[in-house]
Design a protein that fits this description.
Radius of gyration: 26 Å
Helix content: 40-55%
Low-confidence stretches: none
Number of strands: 0
Distance between the termini: 56 Å
Number of helices: 5
């Protein structure tokens, strides 16, 4: 995967080069689509439903950042009939008898 930063005129020149190829196959049409989406400042501000993200984080026992990561990856959100994920129990220190035997 390549990542480049182009000026507006460079992007327009690449678009013209692709159009000049005549028949555009799947890879060039994908490149053309990527050039169309390359203007990040033209896109509206992204908004997340924070109430929903917060609720999912609480249900699953994880942080909001993990929920956003899961949603971005396309993972399904837990259903109402699915039990929430629980944290593993904390490790307790061994009883005093076991510590004496180990010493």
């Amino acid at each position: 995967m390549w990542s480049v930063k182009l000026t507006d005129s460079q992007r327009d020149a690449l678009r013209a080069l692709i159009k000049a190829q005549g028949e555009v196959g799947p890879s060039l049409s994908g490149a053309m689509e990527a050039l169309e989406f390359a203007r990040w400042d033209d896109l509206p501000e992204a908004e997340l439903p924070w109430d929903h993200v917060s609720e999912l984080a609480t249900l699953q026992g994880i942080g909001e950042a993990d929920v956003v990561w899961d949603l971005a990856a396309g993972l399904p959100t837990p259903g109402k009939n699915r039990p929430p994920r629980r944290r593993p129990p904390a490790r307790r220190p061994p009883p005093p008898q076991a510590r004496r035997k180990a010493a």
